[in-house]
Amino acid sequence: MGDMTATPMETLLKHFQSFKTLTLKGTENSMECESWLEDIEEIFESLDYADDHRVKLVIHQLHEVAKGWWIATRRALEHQGPVITWSVFKTTVYQRFFPVSHRKEKGAEFSSLQQGQLNIEQYVAKFTSLLKFAPHIADSDEAQADQFINGLNPNVFTLVNARRSNNFDDALNHANGAEAGLLR
């Protein structure tokens, strides 16, 4: 008998599919698509999967309409270069399964997002969930930090703005500290 050891890719695929990852049929509404993509990304992040493996793994989760869409899209993308990155894949998913009107609406919501009644944790969750619909608004870490800080409530804004951050993580840390200080 020949050697039956699995290739590293087969092992990765078996492991990935052991998570009972949701499939995408392409008939889901945009909220379900978004949720699917977030769940898949969470698994990739926690397992630290390399960028070039992500697309190869996720295409096994596409069925029906989504599978047909991918076959056509992959050919077009391969003309642009041999490697289709995860970022390119996600962008094409958003373009195909999220109507332009939905993307514009979410982009507008992002650009006018204010903390309001939300605590910092809730504000960050909303901020990051809308961010992907507005890459043109916050196209750098500094622009993200500015957008985030400008949406903070006035009392938190004053404390965070005093130590103006050039990146999102610093801005978030300052905001968390400011909120904690104000709650005391």
Helix content: 55-70%
β-strand percent reads under 5%
Q: How many structurally independent domains? A: 2
Number of helices: 10
The residue-averaged pLDDT reads 86
How far apart are the termini?
71 Å
Shape: elongated
Report on the biggest sheet: none
Radius of gyration: 20 Å
Q: Strand tally, please? A: 0
- Which H/E pattern describes the elements? HHHHHHHHHH
List low-confidence stretches: none
Q: Pairing-aware structural class of the strands and helices?
A: mainly alpha
Task: Explain the overall architecture.
The protein has 184 residues and is mostly helical. It folds into two domains: 8-98, no CATH class; 101-183, no CATH class. Helices cover 66% and strands 0% of the residues. The chain contains ten helices and no strands. The chain has helices spanning 8-17, 30-47, 51-58, 64-78, 86-97, 100-111, 120-131, 141-150, 154-162, 168-183. The longest helix has 18 residues, at 30-47. The chain is elongated and about 60 Å long. It starts with 7 loop residues before the first helix and ends with a helix.
Helix-strand blueprint:
Elements: H1 8-17, H2 30-47, H3 51-58, H4 64-78, H5 86-97, H6 100-111, H7 120-131, H8 141-150, H9 154-162, H10 168-183
Helix pairs in contact: 8-10, 9-10
In short:
With 184 residues, the protein is mainly α. 66% of the residues lie in helices and 0% in strands. The chain is elongated and about 60 Å long.
Could you name the key traits of this structure?
184 residues, mainly alpha, 2 domains, 10 helices, 0% strand, elongated
